[in-house]
Amino acid sequence: MDIQATMRDIGHKAKAASAELAFASAEAKRAALEAAADCIETSEAQIIAANGKDMAYGREKGLSDAMMDRLMLDGPRVAAIASGLRAVAAQDDPVGAVLAAWDMPSGLHIERVSTPLGVVGVIYESRPNVTADAGGLCLKSGNAAILRGGSESFHSSAAIHACLVEGLKAAGLPEAAIQLVPTRDRAAVSEMLTMTGSIDVIVPRGGKGLVGLVQREARVPVFAHLEGICHVYVDAAADPDKARAIVMNAKCRRTGICGSAETVLIDQAFYDRHAAPFINDLLAAGVEVRADGLLSELQGTIRARAEDFGVEYLDKIIAAKLVNGVDGAIEHIRRFGSDHTDAIVTEDAAAAKRFFERVDSAIVMHNASTQFADGGEFGMGAEIGIATGKMHARGPVGAAQLTSFKYLVTGEGTIRT
Questions:
Q1: What is the CATH number of domain 3-225+397-410?
Q2: Which residues of 81-107 are buried (b: 16+ CB within 10 A; e: fewer)?
Q3: Mean pLDDT of the chain
Q4: pTM metric for this prediction
Q5: 181 pLDDT tier (thresholds 50, 70, 90)
Q6: Quick one: pLDDT at residue 206?
Q7: Using an 8 Å Cβ cutoff, are 153 and 128 in contact?
Q8: CATH number of 230-372: 3.90.1170.10, 1.10.150.20, 1.10.10.10, 3.40.309.10?
């Protein structure tokens, strides 16, 4: 395959499709998403069979259990993909919304109106459901999408993409509105990063290596989805039962997602009063606890090294540390966090307020599991990723976050003096 020629052709088709999608009706986009969801449901067997090939490929590559879990599709997960598309379809159309309007003394009427970004390139690893999430959200927001899935999910992504194309065809929208890069060759990624003439923004969704590569080499603007080094801080005023439930869920519900807790911070005052029963819970669940200071004396833990903090494990591993109050937790998060998601467990409203004000992450939580760091759980239907930067989009990137705006200015023969 001539990678340069292939990507040039994909980019040309995407640019043309984006021009048509920019004024596609809300009804047509909704119909395409619903038809794609229907196809996902009726193609469940084919999608799972394709996923079987990817699972075999992943085993050959020696992927970890957590990464294999990210890759795996079964009946409920396929149903969830279809459900996510329907949820996106049911949302209000984000394109054409009047964000603000005002009149000027000059006689001009000015409106700021939401518009699509154009062509969105999405580069992702492992999780094949991102194919549907990213394609569906781009379509809803009037953007053409160029999707480059991970080599591990090659067959699964292709099967899901085929359903998205069926949805586009059923609604009379251009098939090139959602394209999947048809090769595992990493050269395709390098090409995407330089396609300034046809791609308006790149969204990387994956590990630190992928995101770092994109940020270093991209000439196209990037929505950064950096690693999820998520913290749960158990404050002195935490309810012990809530703390146990939240810490366990934040780490163990699914260890391989970006919202999984990677460090638990415990106020020394809480530890003096209650010890740390959730540490024993984690150990009983098979989690390797890399503990600092006094916590390392707990039976079953492993003494933490300095480099064990600030790590996205995406596995059954967690770092644990005692801190001196909420300010100690904030200081640790500022040093080791990735600006993704951080949570405080406390019944003290003042401590929660201080944590909310001073932790500058994209998502900050109080008495809730970090596993809720998900566009679907935020009512967005799905997400294209969690943006950890501060420009344009931040936090879960849904359809509304994939729009920009323009100003519509109306006069009546108005001239400037």
A1: 3.40.605.10
A2: bbbbbbbbbebebbbeeeeeeeeeeee
A3: 94
A4: 0.81
A5: very high
A6: 74
A7: yes
A8: 3.40.309.10
